[in-house]
Structure formats: structure tokens, C-alpha cells
Amino acid sequence: MKTTVSSIEGSRQGLFINGEFVAPKAGNYIASYDPTTGERWYDLAAADANDVAAAVAAANAAFRNPAWRRMTQTDRGALVRKLAELVRANADTLAEIETRDNGKLLKETRAQMRSMPDSYHYFAGMADKLQGDTIPINRMDTLNINLREPLGVVGMITPWNSPLMLLTGTLAPCLAIGNTVVIKPSEHATASTLALAELIHEAGFPAGVVNVVTGTGKSAGEALTRHPGVAKYVFTGSTATGRRIAGNAAQNLVPCSMELGGKSPHVVFGDVELEHAVNGVVSGVFAAAGQTCVAGSRCFVEASIYDKFIDALIARTARIRVGLPTLDDTDIGPLALADQLSKVEGYVASGVKDGAKIAAGGRRPRKEDLSNGGWYYEPTVMVDAQNDMGFMRDEIFGPVVGVMPFRDEAEMVALANDSHYGLASGIWTKDIDRALRFANQIEAGTVWVNTYRSASFMSANGGFKESGYGRRGGFEVMHEFSRLKNVIIDYSGAMQDPFVIRLK
Predict the structure, then answer these.
(1) Tens digits of per-residue pLDDT, 126-164?
(2) 266 vs 423: CA distance, rounded Å
(3) Which of 266, 285, 377, 389 is most buried, by CB atoms within 10 Å?
(4) Cα distance between residue 83 and residue 78, in whole Å
(5) Mean pLDDT in the chain?
(6) How far apart are CA 49 and CA 350, in angstroms?
(7) pLDDT grade, residue 501 (50/70/90)?
């Protein structure tokens, strides 16, 4: 792998179309900025409709190319496994690139990159396991079967918070099934996706099977989601953008798989070990500086332990180290975007205006080495929160948690479900009956009990309500990226005259 952080620094990064890196047709580029300093560190190609058309054409040609279309399922699986091992060999380099691009902790991106090959291997193993069905039919000498086949070109629009990890969960099964792909990464974090494209080429995938177009949503994203040559879209990001993509796709009657916003409830009952619950809440909302869709940003605490819990949460939050993402002793790095920092500050201010109080954090760090242009924000605890306040209703995507008490299970369930979103949820209790009741009543695609942010590519996950639709992970995702074809075969050797009625 030739790409490194130093090779990207100050460079112009091209598009990856039909197996090679190319310049954008119009010659336009966009600056990408380092979240730790706020300074430009490379330029990315600003693809337009012509570039997107070229990428989709390459993907469609590759889908029809016998080198890919006629490749056996077992051989496709082997190719995905080869990519897995290239990712494993270059995991630390990919991690360094992604940390520089979005400010996520290096120890976290390393863990993600080192675990990603397991996901590729898992889906590679499914390449020759995707089976159809033989279905009974009330006609003799007739065979009725369902076949599973790839969709065609899949358009993938990925976010800036965990670009490669979130891409892997859909790219690996798509390739294992035999689809081709056009990826549009967020313009705020493209470098690691382009580096992965280099590894895809090295692995030996036929040209055009995977393409990467970079640029803004208004230009590259809009062109991709309106293109009639795409068979399905996958999007991870905000609900507002998801609506726009779904609307564009509907013009061509193209399905989508959406993982959208979240405002996940994190519930703490009085029977738990306080320290464990506090650690769980801190992990659930402050990890990755709160820049995760499943962040447990609404915290409901049983009234009997509310004051004690708040004191413990404030004390634990005070020990969180905000710092450079490359340092091992840092707990929270910067926010990925300057606009995101402004958004977080705005929601905290609106919460205070609505009557909530800042119990911890609530400002940019004053450490001298972090105040010089970086987009840092202290982990923030807001008390006296109400479920109808703006900062408790909207996804902030930053290190801010609102905490409020509840009296009993019925009130807790009502509060937890009182949201437009339904992505994830968590409960802390020693009462297994209560935990199961919660899991049964909560309107969320994922329920964690006495843990939070645990995930596995071997299980399907996704959202309810405005958190999206479609599932990722597990065998379920193989059905998301394949289509069902019914085949009926008459093997009687004779076709009856359709206009002659024979009575029994």
C-alpha cells in the first residue's frame, strides 16, 4: 500500500473509477481540514454529474462483464478474503489516515481496522451459502423455484464518523453476492475510503466493480441518487438527508437501506452497581466525542438514586481527558467539523435557555494546547432536563447528555418511546424480568442490557421510526442486497391447448 498520511498531506486526491485513480472532469477540488488544528491537509476531487455518470457506467459494465458476472460464488468469496488480508496488513495505516481525517481516537480506529477483516471473512463465507427455495405447487410435472441473484449497481453514501467500519458492513456482502458498487464518502472524510480503493485494486477485483466518487452531497450525492443506472442505495447519516435521498430514489422506483439519526434512551434503575451504570452511560454518550448514531444522549434515572447518580456522573465526567486523538491517554478527541462544534454549542445554549442546567462541561477546553484552532468540546452533562426540550428531542451528534428522573416503569417506557427516533436503547438493572419487559416494549432496533455500544457484524441491526429502515449485518443483509426471482418449469413434455376445457 503506497498511501500514507504523509503522502496525502498537501496532495490532490482523485476519483477511483473503472479500476484507476483519475482527476475530476471539471478539474474542481475541495479542501479537507484537520480537526485537531482546523488547517487544510489535502484537497479532494469535487465530482460532478459527469464523473458520477462515468462511475455508474463503469459499475454497470463490470456487472455485465463475465470476469465478474460468471465468477463462481466460491471464487468471489476468495477475492473478498484476499481483500480482508490486505486490510489486516494495512490496518494501522488505515487507522492513522482516518484519525487524521475525522479526529477519532487513534486507539479506536486501530481497533476498528484490526477487527474489520473478520467482517470481510464472515461475509466471504456467505458467498456460496445464499440459497433459493423449492416451493410446492398444485400442478403435477411442474417445478416451482426461487432464485437469489445480485441486484446490480449499489450506490453507497457513507458518513464521516466511522467511514470504513460502516462501509464494510455493506460493501463486504455486496461484493460477496456479486453486485458492483459506487461509493460516495462524506466530503469531510474521504481519505481512508480512497486508500481502501487502492487495496481493492491490489486484491484483483475486476475494473469497475468498486468505484469511489468524492465531493459534496449537492453535486456528487445528488447526481448519484438520481441516476437511473443504480439498483439500490445505502445511506448512513441524518434523517433530513435520508428523506432527500429516498425522494430522489423514488423517482426511479429504486429501494433504499437507511441508517439515520438517533436520540437513544439510556435507562438506569436503582438496583444496579452505581459505578457500572455510570461507566456505561459515559461510554454510551461520550465515546467518539458523542459522534455516533447510537449515542445514549437521553438518560433516565430512577428517582430513588437520581441525586447520587448525578454526583457520580459529574465526578466521572471530570476525569475524562480531552486531547489529541493520537495520544494513548486521550479519552475524547475533537469534533470532526467546525460546523459540528457550532451545532453542539448551539444545542447546549438552547437547553440552558429552556431551563436545563450545565452540571459538567458545557464549553470548549481551556487547555492551551487544544485552544489553537482545533474543534474540541468538553463532555457535557445537562440536568433539570425535560423530554420536550430541543436538545432532548434532536440528534446533537456531540458529547452532550441530558439527565432526568423517572418514578416507575410505566413512566420510563413512555419517556423512552417519546421520540421520533428508534435506533438504539439501553437499560441497567439486575432484574431480568424488568429487562425483558423493557426489551419487549421499547421502540428501538437495538436493545442493550447492562452494556452499551456492543456490536457484532454477525447480528442484523437497524432502526425504527425516523431512524431508518433496512437491516445490516448477519445473514439478513444478504437478502437486502440480492433479489428474488421465481422460476416455474413444466417438465411434462406437453403443453395443453389453453382454449380446451377438460372436465374431471
Answers:
(1) 999 999 999 999 888 999 999 999 999 999 999 999 999
(2) 12
(3) 285
(4) 9
(5) 95
(6) 39
(7) low
The Cα 59–Cα 180 span in angstroms is 6
CA 385 to CA 388: how far, in whole Å?
9
C-alpha cell at 146: 426461487
Angle, in degrees to the nearest 10, between helices 73-89 and 106-124:
160
Helices then strands, counting H and E runs in the chain, come out as 17, 23
* Candidates 96, 222, 259, 378; catalytic one: 259
Q: Binning pLDDT at 50, 70 and 90, where does residue 455 land?
A: confident
For residue 439, the number of C-alpha atoms closer than 13 Å in the C-beta half-sphere is 13
List of domains in the chain: 5-260+467-487 (3.40.605.10), 265-449 (3.40.309.10)
- Separation CA 184–CA 56 (nearest Å): 11
In the block, cell 452499551 appears at 452
pLDDT tier at 342, thresholds 50, 70, 90: very high
Q: Quick one: pLDDT band at residue 218, thresholds 50, 70, 90? A: very high
**pTM beyond 0.85, yes or no:** yes
pLDDT on residue 472: 92
What's the pLDDT score for residue 361? 96
Tell me if 399 sits within 8 A of 378, measured CB to CB. yes
C-alpha cell at 164: 470504513
CA 395/CA 408 separation, integer angstroms: 26
Q: Residue 204 and residue 49: Cα distance in Å, rounded?
A: 28
Q: What is the DSSP letter of 320?
A: P
Q: Pick the closest to residue 154 from 19, 21, 256, 260 (CA basis).
A: 256
Residues with Cβ within 8 Å of 358's Cβ and at least 6 positions away in sequence, in order, are: 348, 352, 380, 381, 382
Cβ-contact 190, 44 below 8 angstroms: yes
Nearest alpha carbon to residue 488 among 136, 131, 148, 151: 136
Q: Check pLDDT > 60 for residue 504.
A: no
CB under 8 Å to 451, separation ≥6 — which residues? Answer: 280, 426
The three-state secondary structure class of 109 is helix
CA distance 310 to 346: 23
Residue 217 DSSP symbol: I
305 pLDDT above the threshold of 80: yes
3-state helix, strand, coil in the chain (%, to 5): 40, 20, 40
* Helix H or strand E encompassing 351: helix 338-353
